[in-house]
Design brief:
Radius of gyration: 17 Å
Number of helices: 9
Largest sheet: 7 strands, parallel
Bound molecules: nicotinamide-adenine-dinucleotide
Helix content: 40-55%
Oligomer: single chain
Structural class: alpha/beta
Strand content: 15-25%
Distance between the termini: 27 Å
């Protein structure tokens, strides 16, 4: 099935590498104009350039998504230029794992700010024009940690579970304006984020995955592309786990 995107503009955070880069690439291939957001100019610049080199439309915008002022300023600038951002993918995220008694306040706050508060900042910045256009897609990248919990990740699991509550509540608020809001919850996906996991920790995780392997960034990007398309117009307030069966 080919997916329908009719002159749409998408903003993908954390588009410089990993899952965000795969999401940006797949939307770019589908003809969507992609605004690639990342922390550093060089990484989102390279992601946008790759889409353009492949014949698509993309621009780069370096924004620290954990900073409310930066997100508000970037949103204003983008809406001046594009009038409307139709598809918002809140993908940027970080982990700062440790057991609770060793977790610092900075570890807690930075993980909540980057994963969860950033969603609130971007929606505040970009959703109002979606309501006027009566079309919008908001897709938040959560995690199976937010569903199952994970020792050593109280900060991250709280942020990712918070994204699920945020998604369901926002879906109810925006449904009347034909804006859908959904979460995708990846399991263990091969990216820089999981590359820093110790081999012993990975050895413990693989037996918990019925498909007995880690996922690829493209597995997440495929789900996001579907949820962003016209074809997903009757799906809202849902959490889709893409995890090889881990959180069944
Ligand atoms: P990654 O570390 O490879 O990439 C994260 C991206 O987010 C990078 O481009 C980074 O620059 C960007 N980023 C981080 N902080 C930022 C900030 N303050 N401002 C702007 N950009 C920022 O991670 P990934 O594995 O591709 O993960 C993407 C998303 O998927 C994250 O939200 C992550 O929590 C989630 N996730 C990943 C996995 C996995 O197994 N890889 C599993 C579950 C959920």
């Amino acid at each position: 099935m080919s997916l329908t995107f009719d002159n749409k503009v998408a903003l993908v955070t954390g588009a410089g590498r990993g899952i965000g880069r795969a999401i940006a690439d797949s939307l770019g291939k589908a003809g969507v104009t992609v605004i690639c957001v990342s922390y550093s100019e060089s990484s989102c610049g390279a992601a946008a350039q790759a889409i353009v080199d492949a014949g698509g439309k993309a621009v780069a915008k370096a924004v620290d998504v954990s900073d409310v002022t930066s997100v508000a300023k970037a949103s204003e600038e983008l809406l001046d230029e594009y009038e409307n951002v139709d598809i918002l993918v809140n993908n940027a995220g970080i982990t700062k794992d440790s057991l609770l008694f060793r977790m610092t306040e900075e570890d807690w706050t930075s993980v909540i700010d980057t994963n969860l508060n950033s969603c609130f900042y971007w929606v505040k910045g970009l959703a109002r024009p979606m309501t006027r256009k009566r079309w919008g897609r908001i897709i938040n990248i959560s995690s199976v940690s937010g569903i199952m919990g994970n020792a050593g990740q109280t900060n991250y699991a709280a942020a990712k579970a918070g994204m699920i509550g945020f998604t369901k509540s926002l879906a109810k608020e925006l449904a009347g304006r034909n804006i859908t809001v959904n979460c995708v919850a990846p399991g263990f996906i091969k990216t820089d984020m999981t590359a820093k996991m110790a081999e012993a920790a990975l050895d413990k995780v693989l037996p918990m995955i019925p498909l007995k392997r880690m996922g690829e960034s493209s597995d997440i990007a495929n789900m996001v592309a579907y949820l962003a398309s016209e074809e997903a117009n009757y799906i809202t307030g849902q959490v889709f786990t893409v995890d090889g069966g881990m959180a069944m």
